[in-house]
Amino acid sequence: MNLGVIGAGYVGLTTGICLSSLGHKITVYDLVDEKLKSLSEKKLPFYEKDLQELLDKTISSQNLIPTSNIDEMIKNTQGCFICVGTPSKQNNSIDLSQVLNSIKLIAEHLKQLQKKDYIIMIRSTIVPSSTNSHILPMLDKILDRSSYGLCLVPEFLREGEAVSDFMNPDKIVIGSINENSKNFAKKIFESFDQATILTTNPETAEMIKYANNAFFSMLISFSNEIANIAEKTTGIDTFEVLQALVEDKRITTKINNQKIKPGLESYLLPGCGFGGSCFPKDVRAILQYAATKNINTPLLNAVMEINDERPSLVVSLAQNLLTSLKNKHITILGLTFKPDTDDIRSSPSFEAIKLLNDRNAKIFAYDPNLSKNISKNKFANFTLCSTLESSLENSDLVILFTKWDDFKNLNQDILNKYMNSPLLIDGRGFLDSSKFNDNVYHKIGFTK
What we know:
Elements: E1 2-6, H1 10-21, E2 25-29, H2 33-40, H3 51-60, E3 64-67, H4 70-75, E4 79-82, H5 97-113, E5 118-122, H6 130-142, E6 148-152, H7 162-167, E7 171-176, H8 179-188, E8 196-200, H9 202-230, H10 238-247, E9 253-255, E10 258-260, H11 279-292, H12 298-322, E11 329-333, H13 348-358, E12 362-366, E13 383-384, H14 388-392, E14 397-400, H15 412-418, E15 424-426, E16 441-443
Parallel strand pairs: 1-2, 1-4, 2-3, 4-5, 5-6, 7-8, 11-12, 11-14, 12-13, 14-15, 15-16
Antiparallel strand pairs: 6-7, 9-10
């Protein structure tokens, strides 16, 4: 199929590149010429595991065509995905302006071109009622219903696993305004025969995305609340507590006497909090939406409160270990909110760095992805080091925030070699504690 993608960001490019690798002809429209030029030169504007290889293939085959000409995109396609940002406003509601600008642009050009039955598919995350309250009225003001179809096709892509998630979806949600729109979207994804295709109305599709992200955020905050309790009682290992929970037959089932552990196990882990571009933004957005409807949301409020306090609890542990943080050399390992990405949005490490700066600590950081290009990644309130070893040099304390594989080999000998007086806080419970002296290794969710 000939399809357009509006927005050459994370969601737009993952969607466009993956679909073009499956044989669809994709035209990617964006306003930023530099970004389009980079795509033509087979350069991604961000890092995502396995996506670069697909970009090389799709640009070479001319199945992926970058353009800044909206007429060209609409003329050459049967429908398009809107994949633009919906950033948070100051009050945590979402800013729909990029979506509405895209809708208006499409509608005006459809009218000029007199094109009929063009299907608009919104992949951006929008709160319930956005379609009926804002998007459809704008379309209907410019076009008659014979000119367009509309559906919501929310994405469920995890950064660092986006290619795998796109190619192996568990569900595809299509919230459409009519049969023609629904069938068009279903045809795009017909090769994903292992996925459940859920067809519904736009309002339900909007809510599904928020429920999805709120649920997994809740699991993380639940784990951290259990950790909060355990940390006040000597000897309780939160990781063992939650491992026992996962073994419950209501969570881990058996098929042919083989245990099948659910993917949600990876969210039932204590740590220093969730971050990224989705979980914090989306939970806050649905809370704000609920507030406009005068709905009390104690559970989701608690999810964010628990998450927001985790970095400060890590810093408090650092303070307890060192007595004073003033002029102490603190090493931060991992700046991205999770491994296999270059995304630092809402990363817990940055909140911790802010708190450490308030206590006049000297901060040195290493991140396997960001440290590859120190000249590009400049930060005012800490020193980004080019190697793990240089970040450890003369350090008083190491705090691990991100589960990069590069950190797995850390051990007591390495700390002894570079640090002043080795101390380590494992903010993810990620390292092998047996590789460290007992008085050196400290992990979130466990008090000795």
